[in-house]
Amino acid sequence: RKNHPDLSLVIIPRHAERAESIVAQLKARGIDCIQRSKTLDRIDSNTEEGSIENRVWISDTTGELRAWFFLSRVVMIGKSFTGKGGQNPVEPVLAGKPVIVGPNMQNFADVVSDLENAKGISRAEGETELLEKISFFLQNPTEGTEQAQRGIGAMERHLGAADRTAHILLEL
């Protein structure tokens, strides 16, 4: 925030029911949150909880994940740092955003390998490297766009996979 005062953080839990727990953890650290499910109308720039610019968004609604990707400047796959398996990086890549993953992407190893080979995704091994990569993409948006374009190119070979799979199943 010191270097990017307009920066906001959006946390999108894989399971929306975790939102209350995340809010409690953040509030315990003195961090204000905006829960998307509680602000479905419009949000004023100043509310009783304080200024919107000083908050973290918690997206705990269904069906809005893709919209958040398009609004983002950088996407980080959180579970790839904190748990085994990771989450699918394809949607944020296809949204044209630079994507950073951590060391735990076992469930998406083939996709991540394709993306890494094309230099269409970034991997950070820990917090320090993650912060460096986020700062890099915020300071160099063209580099982020180029990474995303390489990632989109790497995913082109998967276009039509559902149709191909359906034809194979129908033939069986």
Please provide the count of β strands: 8
Assess the beta-strand content as a share of residues.
5-15%
End-to-end gap:
56 Å
Assign the structural class, choosing from mainly alpha, mainly beta, alpha/beta, alpha+beta, or little secondary structure: alpha/beta
Please, how many helices?
8
Query: Major sheet: size, sense and barrel closure?
Result: 3 strands, parallel
Mean pLDDT: 87
Morphology call: globular
Spatially, the strands of the biggest sheet line up as 1-5-2
SSE diagram, text form:
Elements lengths: L8 E3 L7 H10 L3 E4 L10 E2 L2 E2 L3 E4 L6 H7 L3 E2 L2 H4 L7 H5 L4 E3 L7 H9 L4 E2 L3 H13 L1 H15 L5 H11 L1
Parallel strand pairs: 1-5, 2-5, 6-7, 7-8
Antiparallel strand pairs: 3-4
How would you portray this structure in words?
The strands form three sheets. This protein has a three-stranded parallel β-sheet with strand order 1-5-2, with helices on one face. It has helices at 19-28, 65-71, 79-82, 90-94, 109-117, 127-139, 141-155, 161-171, and strands at residues 9-11, 32-35, 46-47, 50-51, 55-58, 75-76, 99-101, 122-123. α6 packs across α7. The protein is an alpha/beta fold and 172 residues long. The longest helix has 15 residues, at 141-155.
